[in-house]
């Protein structure tokens, strides 16, 4: 009874300040279109040589602006409306691969783009009818900017080391299988601007895809299946601008575990029957949206280790043992428009702990969805 009374007093004292614990000015995207910002920076190749004449296009809804890089590689786009959506930013020049990213643009936003020379396509097939039967052998012989296309089949490989910027594409995520056979990692990425899609990766003792610290920004992992791994995807420490989209995480210990990520976008994924759907550790400014997070055996999503200024919105939380929680000073995040297991007309409380007592803090989804999203 005493614990219940104390907890009730704590919640009453916190209620007047809930808006401050859930929304921070630094991660608020909605402003009026009367405000304008700018985007500037440099366009270079992978050797940091300036690229002149690259076009930088930015679009959001019906808005479109364009800039061009000068002989120094510098570009500047001014009078950018500050709006309530992310801008699609693409950079292109003949002879280079198209670069694309989503970002918010505020006052004096800076971003440097690295363009990769258009490369060769290498082919891998386990039946011996292509240039290579091993994914790793193809990577060893590839150059920066190349694409490696892997035909469907069973590839018993582990610790596939990606140390250059490439596109690694499987023919079908249902039938192009990387069986790690209980080794440590399936794929280990230690290069920037890598794309991986179209694989089923299973039986990794650590991670289906692991990302090395500080050396793998702007990585796009999409349209894969991860099953029976300790972690489906595990970016470990100091990664920027990751895109994790349209993947299926099923029956892993941890679906997606991130450590020290900044500005990751995690969207349109399926998390099914994992122990933990998502674990967000020491990460900030991540945008987590339009994910189906279902039947987690422990938690749908957990934030811990001072994870702040993240936005969790428009997700489905269905039939998880516990949908969401946060600990260790991870209480300054925004929750909005999520579906919480059943129709809701009132705000939903997300319980957390900033000390030994659980719960000792709450966040609030002020606008929960009445029905699940069609994702």
In short:
It is built from three helices and 37 strands. It is mainly β and 375 residues long. Helix 3 links the parallel strand 9 and strand 10.
Task: Report on this structure.
The chain is 7% helix and 45% strand. With 375 residues, it is mainly beta. The protein folds into 3 domains: 1-29 and 282-375, no CATH class; 36-115, Sandwich (Immunoglobulin-like), CATH 2.60.40.1120; 119-252, Pectate Lyase C-like (3 Solenoid), CATH 2.160.20. The two termini are 43 Å apart.
Number of domains: 3
Low-confidence stretches: 1-32
Give the strand tally: 37
Tell me, what is the CATH class of the largest domain? Mainly Beta
**Terminal CA distance:** 43 Å
What's the overall average pLDDT, rounded? 88
Give the arrangement of secondary structure elements:
Blueprint: H1 2-14, H2 18-22, E1 36-45, E2 55-60, E3 63-68, E4 74-81, E5 87-92, E6 99-103, E7 109-110, E8 113-115, E9 121-124, H3 135-141, E10 147-150, E11 153-155, E12 160-162, E13 167-170, E14 176-179, E15 185-189, E16 195-197, E17 200-202, E18 207-211, E19 220-222, E20 225-227, E21 231-240, E22 243-245, E23 248-250, E24 254-262, E25 265-267, E26 270-272, E27 276-281, E28 287-289, E29 292-294, E30 299-304, E31 311-313, E32 316-318, E33 322-327, E34 334-336, E35 339-340, E36 348-353, E37 361-365
Parallel strand pairs: 1-7, 1-8, 9-10, 10-13, 11-14, 12-15, 13-16, 14-17, 15-18, 16-19, 17-20, 18-21, 19-22, 20-23, 21-24, 22-25, 23-26, 24-27, 25-28, 26-29, 27-30, 28-31, 29-32, 30-33, 31-34, 32-35, 33-36
Antiparallel strand pairs: 1-4, 2-3, 2-5, 5-6, 36-37
